[in-house]
Specification:
Strand order of the largest sheet: 3-2-1-4
Distance between the termini: 51 Å
Structural class: alpha+beta
Largest sheet: 4 strands, parallel
Shape: globular
Number of helices: 13
Mean pLDDT: 94
Low-confidence stretches: none
């Protein structure tokens, strides 16, 4: 048998593909990979097809040929990057294999459709609206109120998401956010339906104060199992919203965590997610009410997979492949979760890297389990909103929440990108 992964190149997913390769080997199966312009990814797969998963028709056609030439039937389809989820849904439908439906796969990439779906299921969320022009944005802002957040309508992995606090800031930043949000969308076949439906619109949302969390779940036979909740301890008030620091297990009260679990299930029903992994984000209001930001039909990005594995013992990659293969995943956590955190580092300003400091010292720290730097000396780096992915991460554990916080404080001071 063979396992097929639809993929978009992403440095933070190396561990995912390495684990998928081991999973395939352990089960006596071949690992097939479809990714545009493969480089390091090729070392993990038995067969690699250089196809852009943005082009769903080309991807499905390539899979037909691959399936006909493979010595073993393809028994599972998976994706670890949100960009490849629509292609994976189309391929799974073509092959008659488990995955979320094509409509759900589009909805998790379309933030306006997602908001409407949540509203139909009465999932608590921010007020929202669409604007194609500044005049429409001013009208919507009068209804929603300030502060509000401008964000790309399509989940296209850009950093063009910004808080604005008044009419002057909305007027100043609307055109910039609109241009950035739609940059490259018009000619991307993955988003042809979005271009036709929305024609350059920007999503406006009520700004939600409060602590932010992310929730990792596995859905089996339509039932969600929340595996871990990550807190985001640093205040995230804008104007941009790059994720920097996560910790798990969550410190939220048990009753709030229970309500989060209920709302994750409601979000799945609203969108039609019946199988696989999901990554869902909430803001917790001062009274403890969770309001949903969005959900994705994949494992969380960055080192979320490794963090969950270290903390709970549950292997999300194996669980995704089990579910896709028709096996029963082992979702039993260890009796007591290990306090685990990670730190995503960015440059302080745009420039060219002259040195990366603190890496050797961090690697010698027994609390550090993984340190990855995605850039090298000489690389040009930028800052949000012109970048969305961090330049590296460090994953660490401790024996208590307080010790975890002290470890983070030390790492953030020592690991630095020095710029010319």
């Amino acid at each position: 048998m063979s396992i097929l992964i639809l993929h978009t190149s992403n440095a933070s997913r190396r561990t995912h593909l390495a684990r998928a390769a081991k999973y395939a080997k352990d089960h006596g199966e071949r690992l097939l990979l479809i990714v545009k312009n493969p480089t390091w990814e090729s070392e993990f797969a038995d067969v690699v097809l250089p196809v852009d998963t943005s082009d769903i028709e080309a991807t499905v056609s390539a899979v037909r040929e691959l399936a006909a030439s493979e010595p073993e039937p393809i028994r599972a389809v998976a994706a670890f990057v949100g960009h490849s989820v629509p292609a994976a849904a189309a391929v799974a439908a073509e092959l008659g294999l488990p995955f979320i439906g094509e409509h759900a796969a589009r909805t998790v990439r379309d933030k306006y459709a997602m908001r409407r779906a949540f509203g139909a299921e009465n999932v608590p969320q921010p007020a929202y609206g669409l604007a194609r022009t500044l005049e429409e944005a001013l009208t919507e802002s009068a209804r929603i109120g300030f502060p509000l957040v401008l964000k790309p309508l399509v989940d296209n992995d850009t950093g063009y998401l910004r808080r604005v606090d008044d009419i002057d800031e909305l007027t100043e930043h609307f055109a910039t956010i609109q241009r950035g949000a739609w940059a490259g969308i018009e000619n991307n076949p993955l988003y042809a339906w979005v271009v036709s439906a929305y024609s350059g619109a920007v999503l406006l949302e009520e700004y939600l104060p409060g602590a932010e969390i992310s929730v990792e779940s596995i859905v089996v036979d339509g039932r969600a199992r929340v595996i871990a909740i990550h807190d985001k301890p640093l205040p995230s008030t804008g104007p941009y919203f790059a994720d920097v620091h996560y910790t798990t297990p969550s410190r939220l009260p048990a009753q709030v965590q229970q309500r989060v679990t209920e709302l994750v299930e409601a979000a799945h029903r609203a969108i039609g997610v019946t199988t696989g992994a999901t990554h869902t984000e909430f803001r917790i209001q001062d009274d403890g009410t969770p309001k949903i930001l969005e959900t994705a039909a994949r494992i969380g990005g960055g080192p979320v997979y490794q963090s969950v594995l270290l903390s709970t013992g549950v292997d999300l990659v194996s669980a995704v492949l089990d579910v896709a293969s028709g096996r029963t995943p082992d979702l039993t956590p260890r009796p007591e979760p290990v306090p685990t955190g990670f730190y995503l580092f960015f440059a302080e300003r745009a420039g060219r890297i002259s040195a990366i400091t603190g890496v050797r010292e961090a690697e010698l720290d027994p609390s550090v389990h993984e340190l990855a730097v995605y850039r090298t000396v000489g690389d040009a780096v930028d800052v949000p909103p012109r970048v969305w992915q961090s330049h590296g991460h460090v994953l660490f554990t401790a024996d208590s929440d307080d010790a975890l916080a002290r470890t983070y404080d030390g790492l953030v001071k020592s690991i630095r990108l020095e710029l010319e």
